[in-house]
Design brief:
Helix content: 10-25%
Order of helices and strands: HEEEEEEEEHH
Low-confidence stretches: 16-26
Mean pLDDT: 75
Oligomer: single chain
Largest sheet: 6 strands, mixed
Strand order of the largest sheet: 7-1-4-5-6-8
Radius of gyration: 36 Å
Strand content: 35-45%
Length: 229
Amino acid sequence: MKKSRILVCLGLVTSMGLQQGCGITFKPRKENFEPVAPRVAHLPRKDNGAIYQSGMMVGWFQDVTAHAVGDILTINLQESTNASTSSNTNTSKDQTVEMPGPTLAGQKITNKDGVEVLENNLEAGREFSGQGTSSMNSTFSGTITVVVAEVLPNRNLVVKGKKLVTLNQTEEMIQFSGIVRPLDILPDNTVPSNRVANVYVAYAGDGAMNSANSMGPLARFFQSGVWPY
């Protein structure tokens, strides 16, 4: 009977550890990051005798930077964060209360040895000291080429793309999405990521190297807040 209870408890702990481990495992978004095909506009034919018709593409005067759905744009990843906080608190309080013994008929109330029995003296003190420090520093750099997925009414560009690299049984993926203002696009058709709005950047790996550097699900359970000890 005791063995069966022990097995049931171990099974519950293992299942909770697996659930906890799966809950905190980072995975990239599963939304569509595939390239978006440009929309083909069919303009009605006009026979007005002019050489250039509306809607014709004239390469001599065309802007070569991304501006339409399906165009390609290169993002220079320049993400860097550095934050630190520090706090220090010290408090103290001392209190003393003296209550001399009463006098009755001109005499102090004493015991048979002459010591006053109603005289009181109270002393109290408390002290608190606390200190905390927190710091974070992260840097992410590189390049990724994305595709214009949508042109907003204000001409801003919604871009998204991904890069998947497989090397020696290890897969590394970068996902990027955001909103680009056409004025921020440089002449070489690039834009720094710190000029992109609503940025989503994900970098994840999968394979033998990632598994070797990952903590097991049961170990993650004992390191989580679910474990009461």
